[in-house]
Amino acid sequence: MELLKEKILQKAHIKSDNILRVDSFLNHQMDIKLFNEIGKEFFRLFSDCDINKILTIEPYGTGIACIAAQYFGVPVVVAKRGEQLYISGDVYTTKVRSVARDTSYDIAVAKKFLHRDDRLLVLDDILSGGNDLQGLLDIIQTSGATLKGVGIVIEKAFSGGGKRIRDTGIRVESLAIIESMDKINGIKFKEE
Amino acid sequence: MELLKEKILQKAHIKSDNILRVDSFLNHQMDIKLFNEIGKEFFRLFSDCDINKILTIEPYGTGIACIAAQYFGVPVVVAKRGEQLYISGDVYTTKVRSVARDTSYDIAVAKKFLHRDDRLLVLDDILSGGNDLQGLLDIIQTSGATLKGVGIVIEKAFSGGGKRIRDTGIRVESLAIIESMDKINGIKFKEE
């Protein structure tokens, strides 16, 4: 998606060889006009998949998922992370390892919001090592719902999560795929 | 807002005299058609305020703020809560007391996203005791930005936060104001 790649080149900041700051347009300040174009692009990619629900994970997937959901005309379910104080009743949970923080946390979705006849699109902002995403996929599998595909705004291909998940046969569509980045050479996108 | 009140009466669940579960349409599963109507209503209320940015707090304000921001044509800034691992550079922070969890946490906004000439609308999903909201207002005051108003989806008037903040002269518009609730008598809204 050219508009997104231009925005990344203009506004993203390489903090280290592994960390890309996108806080000026994606996950701290949110450029809603860009979000609308992202939402339309996800709809273009997945409009033939008969999606009835979008699943994402807090906190950073929520905005993208809500904007995209308007084009699909479906509700969003936001998986919770960490303590589960405000989830009542039965939940699907799984443990996820955070590489950045060298710790683990739980993610959870109330069972009443995932059903066997659901046809899910998973959306998230960033795909790196894929641990969060794998956690969501584990929850979907346990619930018996059907995963129709995964939409990602920015994939860091060099972190390997996208390849690992595609190798299991899951359709992953990333709107910008970064093949390499460093402070000297900058950001190199995967050729389409 | 009648549509919202009907949804609350149909779908919200009084867990105790103080806790209202709205997880089936507002903060775990999100009813995006309802969010659109909420966004339009906030725009109707604040369209004459020359808003240039919406400020909210993660995780539950994000979806509402992103949907509403489309009508205003402005970006969203999402205040972060807890650890600040992914915020770079200078931040405005303040400490907020969580009554529900009997603990405190930090909320933070990167200084580069709040300026003296900003004209802010603060949006959030629920207003109870008002501690989160007060934290946001403290950050705005420190930044020197102008607060044009506060929009809340559901206010629990009996918790007192709304009155306390309105008493300081701030305009707070809540789309549904619950005056009382308990399992026997159900939910009573404030008369308009």
Provide a short characterization of the protein structure.
By secondary structure, chain A is of the alpha/beta class.
Describe this structure in words.
The structure is a homodimer of 192-residue chains. In chain A, strands 6-7-5-4-8-9-10-11 form an eight-stranded mixed beta sheet, with helices on both faces. In chain A, helix 2 crosses helix 3 (61-72). In chain A, a hairpin with a 4-residue loop joins strand 6 (91-98) and strand 7. Helix content of chain A is 29%, strand content 35%. Chain A is an alpha/beta fold. Chain A has helices at 2-11, 32-46, 61-72, 131-143, 161-166, and strands at 13-14, 20-21, 29-30, 53-57, 76-81, 91-98, 103-110, 119-127, 146-156, 172-182, 186-189. Chain A binds chain B through residues 13, 15, 21, 23-24, 27-33, 35-36, 58-59, 62-63, 65-67, 69-70, 73-78, 80, 83, 85-88, 100-101, 109-110, 112-113, and chain B through 13, 15, 21, 23-24, 27-33, 35-36, 58-59, 62-63, 65-67, 69-70, 73-78, 80, 83, 85-88, 100-101, 109-110, 112-113. Strand 3 of chain A pairs antiparallel with strand 5 (76-81) of chain B, so a sheet runs across the interface.
